[in-house]
Amino acid sequence: MRVAIAGAGAVGRSIAAELLENGHEVLLIDKAPTAISVERVPQAEWLLADACEITSLDEAALQRCNVVIAATGDDKVNLVVSLLAKTEYGVPRVVSRVNNPKNEWLFNESWGVDVAVSTPRLMSALVEEAVSVGDLVRLLRFSHGDANLVELTLPPESALAGTRVGEVDWPQDTSLVTIIRGSRVLTPSVEESLEAGDELLFVAAQAREEQLEDLLSVRRES
């Protein structure tokens, strides 16, 4: 897979290093000469250019990329890069960094964004996830389809504790994708039983989140 990353700061370089380690081709783009640190990620391709300029993106051959990541520290730049990647070059997957949570509403399919990653929101969500049992925590928003990645830790008193996954009448437009049980990551099968303390990860339509939380938090009858 070929990935172009706009923004060669600490965030962009870290993403690049991880992707390279997983066997992907990576191109880092930045207009600041001081950001071009080839020795830090020597396996990556580097391009000194303004990612908001069509001529720069032509030089980067963005049409050959499977994924574009807009990872600069400027939300305006990330939106422009996302829009150009999607509309001018037809990049299948566009991931964009949100620096200011107040701008998060802009990062949607209208601007070419498939997945918006808000670092402040993610950090706060992880804090909530660490201390919340029985409360739904939104981890990630997917622009297409108005769906979110959400997490809930099943409380001991939940009526669903001990129930098999296939026996649960899940809300429409929700999908249980992973069960984290201690150090184990389980792919949920219809025969898998839910246990108190399980961290349940769902992809769910935003309109169904409250219904999902209510279902999982219903107390068993004493």
UniProtKB/TrEMBL annotation:
Residues 1-117 form the RCK N-terminal domain. Keywords: Ion transport, NAD, Potassium, Potassium transport, Transport. PROSITE patterns: RCK_C, RCK_N. Pfam families: TrkA_C, TrkA_N. GO terms for cellular component: plasma membrane. It comes from Streptomyces genisteinicus. GO terms for molecular function: potassium ion transmembrane transporter activity. It comes from the Bacteria. This is Trk system potassium uptake protein TrkA. Residues 137-218 form the RCK C-terminal domain.
